[in-house]
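Methods: example folding runs. The two proteins below were folded one after another, and each record is reproduced exactly as written to the output file, sequence line first and structure-token line second.
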Amino acid sequence: MSTYTVNNAGDAVDLMRSFLEEFANEEKRKTERAVTRALKRVDRDIAKYQRDEIQRVYKETIKRFYDEYTPNIYQRTGSLYNLMSVTEDTETNIVAWDYDEKKMTPTRKNKAGGREYLMDIVFGEGWHGGADKGPGHRNPGVPYYRQPPPYYRHWDRYPAARYPGSPYQIAEEAIRKLDEPGGPFWVEFERLANQYIAEELSKT
């Protein structure tokens, strides 16, 4: 058994100070380790939250686009819902997204200027179908429907229905707002950090 011989009051004070400093340093190290473990959990879970929120916002944008117009001369495929691809780097927990036109049906090139029909004309410009070129077209470059179904013998008198905005730009703006200071990503990060730090500190 170890014993300490205290010769005077000064020795006692020094001994207590040394003990308290070592205790404080150990508590600091425990806290730092707990915070490190907690932040690793936060990085993992905030990435999943971001991925889910990006997909949710995108699908809500496409739903509003579809809900704005109900086609009566063509059959909607819902391909825009499949356009976005969200990925997560498991090493860095970085979330990224892109738009893959190969997931859309059809993926044909529009004859006017080589624009991709669904990717550019529908998703990019907000047109609800139509064709912008063809024999007897009223206004080449602007999508029109052909009438009447199912024969489609002549061009409609007016341009095709168009959404008041670009679904692509609207989706990108909505996703950007998720990461603004005070936005959903920041709120969720703070919530997770507070929860996980408290849980890890309780284990020390």
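Second run, written to the same file directly after the first:
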Amino acid sequence: MAATATAAAAADTAMSPLQAAEHLLGCINTLPSSIIFSLFAETPSARVIEYLTDFFSGNALPKTLACKLYCTCNPEATNELVRQLFYTRFSLWHSSDTVRRHSLYYDLRLKKLVRHNVPYQRSPRKNPYLCRACRLHSSASKIH
């Protein structure tokens, strides 16, 4: 068991953070465009870090690899404060059921937005083309 962990650690050091992340998550081209934009181009902020850590945590990317990946891909993310915020948010996600339940992220296995492994479904919209009587009676199915 220890030999396997040592081999995995050696493989992680030989790979770049991007290669290691692609090994665990799949090709970077298959990630949602909003994740790619946040990872490479968007200025680090609490909102961006929350979004990325929810995605990485929900898709089981290890904390240190996720932070190295972010710092490698985004030159503005090398600030120590950014790293602290990243690690804090990652720790919160793993230690707090409340944070996990309220975190919305894209699950790569399910190919959809989820909230702590519960598929996210938008609330049904009211059809603006229904007449007033049909809107009042939700069981009405005719459009006038």
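Comment on the second run: The CA atoms of residues 43 and 102 lie 24 Å apart.
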